[in-house]
Design goal:
This protein has helices at residues 3-19, 21-58, 71-82, 95-106, 140-151, 162-204, 206-214, 219-256, 265-270, 274-301; strands spanning 60-65, 87-93, 129-134, 155-159. With 307 residues, it is of the alpha+beta class.
Length: 307
Amino acid sequence: MKWSSFKYLTKQGLHSMVQNRLMTLASVGVLTACLIITGVAVLLSVNVNSFVDYLSDQNEFEVYLNDGYEQASIDAFVQNVSALENVAETEYISKSQAVEEMQAWMGEDGDLLSSYAGEDNAANPLPASVRVRVEDLTALSQTVESVKALGGDMIYEVQSPTELSSVLVGMKRAVTYVGWGLVAVLGVVSVVVISNTIRLTVFARRKEINIMKFVGATNAFIRLPFFVEGMTVGAISGIVSTLVVGGVYYGLLQWLDQPSASWLGEFTRCMHPMGEVIWPMLGGFVLFGVFIGGVGCATSIRKHLKV
């Protein structure tokens, strides 16, 4: 196709958008609404997953040890635990350190435990322990069982947030499925909307298309203006959606930065900053909108080319 023909057909597509501006505005509005809902679902999904990953990184369990074991045996046990595949970090807490941590946790009332402080204090009732941090939250139960097998009678008790880990993993899986499910559903809705809009334009110009076919116009020559129309609608919708979703997200980040929202501090720290979100969002929305517009055009014009 010659460059002059390409320019002419592009202008025809843009002219058709202006001529059918009410339908164009309707298409932009509906596609923008779909993209906004899609963007909200994706942002919610990635931020919740980030928060769950943060909790997973902080996840640990405590292995309490029986008294009466030599320090060499305890050191060997800690070393064996550190060598397990899913263990990220281990920390040995002696009986005296356990008292110090308890005093710090109790604050002003920590002096009540002063009689138990000090190394080799026979009156100290708190057990020594090993604090274990895991890498993969989904394998927490297996890791706990492996630690129990290594410790045997040395272990007095193991405290692990197994139920919490199951909840977090389930939450992450549910948010991911729901988010991408919405993307798929809204993508189909957008294709239908754009297809119907372009189908009306094609139907209004069906005689013109038939005449062009009879005088020898190629399918590509006829299709191009409609592709331009559909993809331009998609690009405009992508830009508008980015402005709306980006503006709301920026406002949310500003609100979460206020003292009144300090109770959400842990979640706020895990949210992706605006700079990491806005450009991928713009590129994704525009590309997705152009793709939906192109697919909608292709599905609506096909049968009118068969003459």
